[in-house]
Amino acid sequence: MARRAIPPVIAWLWLVCACAAQTLSFPALTGRVVDDAGLLDASTTAALTQSLADLERKTTDQLVVVTLKSLQGTSIEDYGYQLGRRWQIGQKDKNNGVLLIVAPNERKVRIEVGYGLEGTLTDAVSKLIIENSILPRFKVADYAGGIKRGVEDIIQVLSGDAQEWQDRAAQRLAPDTAQPAPDGAVWPAIVVVLVGVGFLLYCAVRGGAICRAILQFLFLMLLSGGRGSSSGSSGGESFGGGGGSFGGGGASGSW
Q1: How many Å apart are CA 37 and CA 102, to the nearest integer?
Q2: I need a surface site. Which of 108, 121, 123, 139 has the fewest CB within 10 A?
Q3: 113 and 133 in contact (C-beta within 8 Å)?
Q4: Burial of 55 (0-12, 13-18, 19+ CB in 10 A)
């Protein structure tokens, strides 16, 4: 019995984790600047959009600014990783996407870096930009100023001398290069996994058609929802992600 139960355990763990991830909702990718929290005026948005378009023309790197109304109870690290993958920022063959994410209600900011740029826009450089350029302005409620300065610095790294920035980061942030430990937002997902494992073990011991029917229903529901509404871009300019992928690289900060 134990041998037959191993594949369902793996399938169930994958199922509950995927279902937990799908509880998040994401804003539509309507342009290079998605100001869902309403922090930027029209002129600032237009100027940022032009700078980000120029960056992509010169380097093919895609940088997108997004402000959020809420992190929906998860960490900004988890939200940023999932948002990058949902929007697929960056070119598919280069994975050269970057997100500058601002969540004013939770007072969090993050630079999420695609796989292909992790060696250029390193975690330490991202942290340096956040600590030196973004947070001082956010602390006095100058959100537009912090975002603009953060974007300028990221563009300099991507289109200029990345090594110079990495040297500066090594000097300024050497004592604090470790990534912060995950916050309490991961515990709900852990609880979901444990409950799912308990249910699966119950099914393995007691068996029955009801358990099998529930598992089949959830699995089919996941398959039908996996292609769900990844609200595409609309209005304004014609812009979309190029198929890039993210692995969790970057840095975060609070104010």
Answers
A1: 9
A2: 139
A3: no
A4: buried
Structure tokens belonging to residue 73:
């109870």
Bridge-based pairing of strands 62-67 and 33-35 is parallel
Integer CA distances (angstroms), 126 to 177, 187, 247, in order = 10, 27, 15
Rounded to whole angstroms, the Cα distance separating 250 from 255 reads 17
Structure tokens at 83: 């948002």
CB atoms within 10 A of CB 52: 24
Rounded to a whole number, what is the distance in angstroms from the first to the last CA of the chain? Answer: 53
CA–CA gap between residue 159 and residue 253 (Å, rounded):
24
> Which residue spans within 77-157 are E strands per DSSP?
97-103, 108-114
- Among candidate residues 21, 39, 53, 52, the one with its CA nearest the CA of residue 185: 21
CA distance 93 to 101: 24
Instruction: Locate 29 and state its tokens.
Output: 């990718």
Task: Kindly list the averaged pLDDT for each block of 10 residues, start to end, along the chain of length 255.
Answer: 52 55 84 97 98 96 97 95 93 94 98 95 96 97 98 95 90 57 54 67 64 60 43 50 86 97
